[in-house]
Amino acid sequence: MLKDFFNLNSPFETFDSENFLAHLLTSKHICNVLYKPDGLVDQKIRNVVFENVSFSKTTIERVTFNDCTFNDCLFIGTEFSSVEFHDCKFFCCNFYKAKFSDVYAKPGQFRHAINDKKYSNIAVSLYQQLRENYYKESQREFKNEAEYFFGHWRRRNNLVQAKRKGKRWYEYFPSFAISSIYGYLLGYGYRLRNLIATTFLIIVATVVTNFYFAEYLFSSAIEPSVLKTLYFTITTMATLGASGYTPDTDIGYMFIVVNVCIGISIFSATISAIFKKVIR
């Protein structure tokens, strides 16, 4: 792990382009190297582990990385142009002021690049660059995932910045808590699996609640069943109205209002996310 997130761990060697390419031909592990040239161009690199390697202030252009792993690497001020990352992994890597142009890379490959929340501003900048890259290059299939990670790190960065400014907890905690719930449960409106899982759990919880409180929803005696409760819950949450099941107590009216509010909120978010996923 990098002792200083902005500097390589000592000791390390300085490689020029010739030495670097020669090592790539003979080794699958490049370790403790400061790459000094201003550019790395027209290369295909496969199954190489880069550990404690700096590509800072380097223009990496028309390079394809396949199944590569980057541990404790520096990309400070690095410019990536027409670069492809296929099944690569980044761990503890500094992308401070890195630039991306015409880059193909799944956002999830960078999810462990920055793990320390005190460097969350760098993670925000990284995913901002990826978002812009996906918009410009019409890589819409990766846009939503980048939006999710951007929201995740922006929330952490807002917390870090609030603490650095000496704000009291009640000034930042409510917005942080709401953002956390929105992120974990609804995936900031972009991660479909979060929304589907949350929708399912909310429906199950609502069905169970309606089932056990059924005797309080109606003034006349009823015989509740799981199937009837499921029908009542889904139709009510979808604001269609449960034909044949109309609560006539104060608690019943309250349950209807709660069901409708929950249904409108969760179904709208889920449908919106599905449209974002399908209609790119």
- Separation of the first and last Cα atoms: 39 Å
* SS content category: alpha/beta
- Number of separate helices: 8
In percent, how helical is the residue content? 40-55%
SSE pattern, N- to C-terminal: EHEEEEEEEEEEHHHHHHH
**Low-confidence segments:** none
Please report the total strand number as a whole number. 11
Instruction: Specify the overall morphology.
Output: elongated
Question: Could you give a short description of this structure?
Answer:
This protein is α/β, with parallel strands linked by helices and 280 residues long. 49% of the residues lie in helices and 18% in strands.
How does this model look, in words?
The protein has 280 residues and is an alpha/beta fold. It has 2 domains: 13-186; 193-278, Orthogonal Bundle (Helix Hairpins). Helix content is 49%, strand content 18%. The protein contains 8 helices and 11 strands. Helix 4 packs across helix 5 (192-212), helix 5 (192-212) crosses helix 7 (226-237) and helix 5 packs antiparallel against helix 8 (250-278). The relative contact order is 0.07. The model has no long low-confidence stretch (mean pLDDT 88).
Attribute tags:
single chain, 280 residues, alpha/beta, Helix Hairpins, 6-stranded parallel sheet, 5-stranded parallel sheet, 8 helices, 11 strands
Layout of helices and strands:
Blueprint: E1 13-15, H1 17-26, E2 29-35, E3 39-46, E4 49-54, E5 59-66, E6 69-71, E7 79-81, E8 84-86, E9 89-91, E10 99-101, E11 104-105, H2 120-136, H3 140-164, H4 169-186, H5 192-212, H6 214-217, H7 226-237, H8 250-278
Parallel strand pairs: 1-2, 2-4, 3-5, 4-6, 5-7, 5-8, 6-9, 7-10, 8-11
Helix pairs in contact: 2-3, 3-4, 4-5, 5-7, 5-8, 7-8
